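User: Sequence for Protein kinase domain-containing protein below. Tokens please.
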Amino acid sequence: MHWMLFYAFLFYCLHESCKNADMHELGLIHTDLKPENILLVSSEFNQTVGSKNTSEHCNMKKVPKSNKIKLIDFGSTTYDKECSFSVVSTRHYRAPEVILGSGWSYPCDIWSVACILVELCSGKVLFQTHENLEHLAMMERVFGPIPSYLVRRLKGKGLKYFKHERRLVWPDRYTSRESIRAVDRMPILSDLLENYADSSSRSLLDLLERMFSFDPVHRITAKEALQHSFFKQVDH
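Assistant: Structure tokens for Protein kinase domain-containing protein:
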């Protein structure tokens, strides 16, 4: 299960970067974690037999010799106490607190990593959208409603997405049929993992649910994630 090792190394980059010190403990937030900013250390690979096609020819696939990775593009990395931008992260990997303008910190990195893990598992970008309300609707479709206590805490622009400080205003009068269909096609997280993951899907689901917590205060940390039971299966 080489992709599990990739997950572990990704968390390791967050937890053990900067001369073996915890990146987040140093007060650093990457703010732009996405597949393009995660590189394999070595370009060497082995060719193995994949699946046979209808003409009985074998499809070959390239498997990296090493799962070691490194993070790049620290151009938008910031210290926690020096957060000056209201919007961070590439759209598809953006945490809900960033969209809602309720303030962001270290947990926004964890949300981004969770999106990457799902993408590695399914081969598809989880939130393929470019609009805030649609993005929030997709999140609720996959994870369930945003907790009302978080909505009640919102100030400013974040409140416009909700009715009576409870229900997401979706769809609104500007929502296209194409957008509604895109949201309706989104599977809940457990169904998505059943389609793409193997026997480890139950522990992976538990890990992702903790990473995808709408409340950043309750979102699992990189250090805690490395201790999760999911990674105990890496060596088996």
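The two ends are 9 Å apart (CA to CA).
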